[in-house]
Amino acid sequence: MISITATGDSFITRRLPNNNDAVQQLRELIGSADVRFTNLETVLRHDEGFPSAQSGGTWASSPPEVLNDLREYGFNTLAWANNHTLDYSYGGLLATKNYIEQLDFIHAGVGRNLAEASAVKYLECAGGRVAIIAGTATFHESWSAGEQRPDVVGRPGVNPLRFQKIYKVSAEQLQHLKSVAAKTGINAEHDLRVKEGFAAPDDKSTFRFGTQFFQLATDGKTGEISIPNGRDLRRFSKGIEEARRSADLVIVSIHAHEMQDGRKELPANFLTEFARNCIDKGAHSVIGHGPHILRGIEIYRNRPIFYSLGNFIFQNDTVAHLPADFYEKQGLGSEHNVIDALENRSDGGKRGLGVNPDVWRSVVARWEMEKGELRQLELFPIDLGFNEPVYQRGWPRMTDDISALENLRDLSAAFGTEIVIENNVGKVLLPG
After folding, report:
1. For the domain 2-150+154-158+232-316+356-429, what is the CATH code?
2. Rounded to whole angstroms, how far apart are CA atoms 76 and 178?
3. For 337-379, what is each residue's pLDDT tens digit?
4. pLDDT category, 204, cuts 50, 70, 90?
C-alpha cells in the first residue's frame, strides 16, 4: 500500500509565520502519506538571472528559504514546470534547480535539456518505489527545453505538452473566412515562409486564418476543440512505459490553464485526452494544477485524474520586485513602486484573481493505492483567507467550510465521479 497527499499550486513569496497552528494541522495530514506533492510556482533566487521578456503573468520570484517552509508542511516531492519557470530566464531556472536539490526534494519537469526535463524521477518509500513525471501545457513557446544532439547541446527549459486549437465552423462560415483571407492577405507572410522553406505546409484538413486554424464541422457541431501534440504525447508515454517497469507506482503531474468553452473550471479537450492516455500507458495517478481553481476529478480505470487541485499557497500579490516590463504594461513608470503596480493591475482590489472566492478555497487530496488500484480517496477542505488583507492572505488552513467540497462534487459529477461529504471530508465512492 502506498499513500499520497497532493495539493495544487504553491505560489509562495513570503516566509512562514512562527508558531502557526494551521501549519501543524496540515503537516499532520500531509505528513501521513508516503508521497507528499505540491507544484512550486515561483522562481527561487537572490539576484540570479534577469527578467525574461515574457512572464507567466506576474514575474514570480521568491527567496530560496521558502523551500524550508514547504518542507515544514511536510512535502517531499515537487513539480516546477509551469508558466513561471523562466520568469527570470535561464539564470533563474538554474538557481531554482540548485536550491531545490540542496534540500533533497524529489523534483521533475525542468532541466538543462529536454532529456533532463522529461526524465523520470524516483522516490523510495516504505510502501514501494514511486516514479514522478512532470510537464506543462502553459508556457511561452521559447521556454520548451531543447533536445540534446551529438553535435549541439540542448536548451534549458520545461517538459512541454503542446497542443493545437481548431475551431469547427459551418461551410458558410469557412467560405467567408477564406474570402476574407484572400482579400486581406492575412496568410501572406506564412505562405511566403512555406514557399521559401522556413515553415512547413499546414495540414490539408484545416484552414489557417492568421494564427488560428479552422475546420469544417461535418457533424454540424461548431466550436473549439484542442488536440495534444503527437510528439509530446509520445515522449510522455515513453517515460511512463519506462517508469512502470521500474516502480510500483507512476504519478504524472501536468500544469494547464487551458479551458473548455470559455469556462475556466472545465479542462480543455487536449488535457482530458492526455490524462486518459497517461493512465492507458500505465500511470496510476494524474495530478493537474494551473488555473488556480478546482476542476473535477475523474476515476478512470480505477485510477484518479485530478484536472486541477486549485491552490495550496497563493501569494502572487506580495512579490518583492517587478521588472520595468510589468510597470509598462500597467502604464506606470520608474517613479512607481511594486505596490502601485499590483494595485493598478487589480484596480484597487476590484478585479483579478483576488476577487474570485474560488481561488481562495481548495482541498488537499489524500489517496491510497494497492497493487496499482485505488483503494481510498479523501478530500480535505482548506481556506486561504479570501477576506484578509492582501499582505496576509494566501496561507492555507484547514476549515469546516465545505463549499469547496460541494463545488468539487458538482464538477466531478460530469466525469461520473460521486463524492459524499461526511464530517467535513469529501470521500470518493469507488466502483464495486
Report:
1. 3.60.21.10
2. 54
3. 999 999 999 999 999 999 999 999 999 999 999 999 999 999 9
4. confident
Reference 131, options 273, 34, 16, 260; nearest CA is 34
Query: 265 is written with which cell numbers?
Result: 473550471
Radius of gyration of the CA atoms of the chain, in A? 22
Give the separation between CA 305 and CA 316, rounded to whole angstroms: 27
Q: pTM for the whole thing?
A: 0.96
pLDDT at res. 131: 98
Domain range summary for the chain, segments of one domain joined by +: 2-150+154-158+232-316+356-429, 164-225
Report the SS3 class of residue 41. coil
Range of lowest pLDDT (32-36, 293-297, 346-350, 361-365):
346-350
19: number of Cβ within 10 Å: 6
DSSP state of 120: -
Exposure b/e, 82-97, CB count within 10 A at least 16 = b: bbbbbbbbbbbbbbbb
**What residues pair up with 79 in beta bridges, in sequence order?**
39, 108
| Amino acid at the residue 392 | Q
Alpha-carbon distances of 131 from 22, 100, 238, 260, 320, rounded to whole Å: 30, 18, 13, 30, 35
Give the E-state strand segments of 119-267 in sequence order.
121-125, 128-136, 157-158, 163-169, 207-209, 212-216, 223-228, 249-255, 259-260, 263-267
Residue 432 has pLDDT above 90, yes or no: no
